[in-house]
Structures are given as C-alpha cells and as structure tokens.
Amino acid sequence: MDLVTFGEGLVRLSGLGDARRLDAHVGGAELNVAVAAARLGTAARWISRLPDNALGRFIEGSARVHGVEARVEWTADGRVGLYFLEQGSAPRQSSVVYDRAGSSFSQIAPGTVDWLSLLRGARWFHVSGITPALSESAAAVTDEALKAAKAAGLTVSYDVNYRVKLWNASRARAVQEALMRYVDLLVVSEEDARTVFDARGESADDLARALAKRFAVDAVAVTVRDSVDGIGAVVVASGATYAGPRHNVEVVERVGTGDAFTAGLIVRRLENRGWEEAVRFATSIAALKLTMPGDFFVGQRSDVEGLLDKTTADPSLRSG
Questions:
Q1: Which of 2, 159, 184, 259 is catalytic?
Q2: 167 closest CA partner among 142, 202, 200, 204
Q3: Which one of 13-17, 95-99, 146-150 scores highest in mean pLDDT?
Q4: Torsion of CA 207, 208, 214, 219, to 10 degrees
Q5: How far is CA 132 from each of CA 137, 140, 147, rounded to the nearest angstrom?
Q6: 31 CB contacts (<8 Å, ≥6 apart)?
Q7: CA distance 269 to 277
Q8: What are the pLDDT digits (tens) for 55-107?
Q9: Facing residues of 124 across strands?
Q10: Is 159 an active-site residue?
C-alpha cells in the first residue's frame, strides 16, 4: 500500500432549481484523492465510517470500482452525508447546499480506529481540512491520525480545503494551525491562504514562502484559480520555487479539481520525481478533471502524459 487517505464519503445530487431529476455522484475530498491516485497506478486505501445501508454501500462500491481499497467502519445508526449541487455557468456561480449534519462519519470517536494496522506498510498519508471541520470528535481523530502517520514515518500531506459553510475562518485557523506540526506537504489555494491563515503576499510564491516559514513545512503548494500569467500552481520546497502551467480547457465541472491536483503531486513524489515534474503533472491532472462531470478524476495516465507532451512542446507553458 502506497497511499492512505482519511475522510468522509458523500452522495452528491445535482440539478436543483426547476430540475425534474437529480443525478447522483459519490465524492468526498480524501476519497477523490484516493480515486485519482488509484487510477494513475498508485495503490490507495481510503479509511472512513459509513452507515450499513444502501447509500453507505453505494459509496463503498464506488470507491472499489475505481481501484481503491475501502476500509470502512460500518455503523448501525447515523446517516450518509449529502450535498446538493446546482451547476452555474459564467457569470453565475455554482451553488452548493450541504446536508451532512449528524452523519455517521461526523460521529467518529477517538480511539476507535486502529491506525497502527491501517497505516502499516504505507508510505504516504493524506487528509484535508474538511475532516476536522465536521465535528469536534472528527477534529480529534484527525489529530490522532496525523500523529500516528508521523510516528509511523509516513510522508504527510494536508489540503486546507476551506469550506465556509462548515466553519468560520477563525475556528479553521485555530484548529488547523495546531495540526501543521505533523505536515510535510501543505496544499492551499491563494484565497484560503489569506482567509484562513491571514498570509500576506502579492503572489502565490510569496504566500507559499510565508506559510513554509511560519509552519516549518517542507513543501507548500499554492493553487492559482484565475491566473493572468499562465501559472496554475506553485510549489515552494527547500527554498526553491517550481511552477505548473494553467491550461485553457472547456470547463465541464470544477468539483474535485483541487483533489486531482493533490493526487498528482502525491503520485509523482511517490515515484521519486522532483517537484518541478510533480507540479506540472499535477496541474495537467487538474486541467483534465475540469473537463469531467462528477467528483472523481476518471481519466487514464495516458491522458495526463498526452497533455504533458503538449505543454512541454509549447515554450510559453514551461515552468521556471
């Protein structure tokens, strides 16, 4: 097992407004990362907690279909978390409504997960800020998981993934600053770096350097949503900056794009590739995810390599 992720699995229903039908998808930030990594050839395990009913089994089955080893604590009570997505087209933004209060996962308790067993043999552990946002007990288990992963010698990545509908910025800052001592790779958007951590800087590079210094993190990746200079993300590691290009694509759906990006970084680093290659690989996966409906990246490695070949051939899209 190479990668272990930990987080809630959700059912998404799309098509609000005056829609006559709703399309169902499975998602969840950490599950999205595991699926993308598995589809790119990395052995991935996802740890979660679900009710033992049809919806819980639907989520688990969706993970397994994409090659993820799902390790689920099944519960007799609780419920599956839901969210509703109404797609928007520019200039109107998409709208999300969460219905996840009281979910089985949010009721997870410290001391109930056998981290020693579930992390054994793994090389990398990933979690996002959505998980500790769900409840105080989920935050406690997140701390427990990160501590166990660090003690086991795994590389730890953490995506801030701030959701204003789950908690406010001051609470998100207080909880997550305490978790940074376990983190080797921090992933954050420009907006979240400023909102959650009050980071200062004109550019993504400035923000990444500020956070790397503040938290003594080995590497910080900052994603850029609306780039005017062709950059989709930067990684600051060991004092050096590496940039990945922003690709112009026809956007089908933005959900899961950041998770696909994170998966790309993880996969390339597990393959012992340098940060420049990793960030270019990651931005290519993110671009491809934008063209796919649903929460999961469902492409193939050949799709990513094909896009990488095109950007390598275009001098305007080279990093550095």
A1: 259
A2: 142
A3: 146-150
A4: 170
A5: 8, 7, 14
A6: 5, 7, 9, 46, 48, 59, 63, 68
A7: 9
A8: 999 999 999 999 999 999 999 989 999 988 876 655 566 678 888 999 999 99
A9: 3, 155
A10: no
The tens digit of pLDDT for each residue in 153-184 reads 999 999 999 999 999 999 999 999 999 999 99
Q: How far apart are the C-alpha atoms of 149 and 118, rounded to whole Å?
A: 10
Taking alpha carbons only, the member of 231, 186, 228, 233 closest to residue 210 is 186
Planar angle of CA 60, 123, 50, nearest 5 degrees: 20
Beta bridge partners of 241: 236
Q: In what order do the strands lie in the sheet with 3-6?
A: 69-75, 44-51, 3-6, 124-128, 155-159, 185-189, 219-223, 231-237, 240-245
Which pLDDT score, from 0 to 100, does residue 83 have? 87
Which residue reads 């001391």 in tokens? 111
CB 185 within 8 A of CB 156: yes
Residue indicated by tokens 């990006």: 261
The yes-or-no verdict on residue 233 having pLDDT over 60 is yes
- Largest Cα–Cα distance of the chain, in whole Å? 57
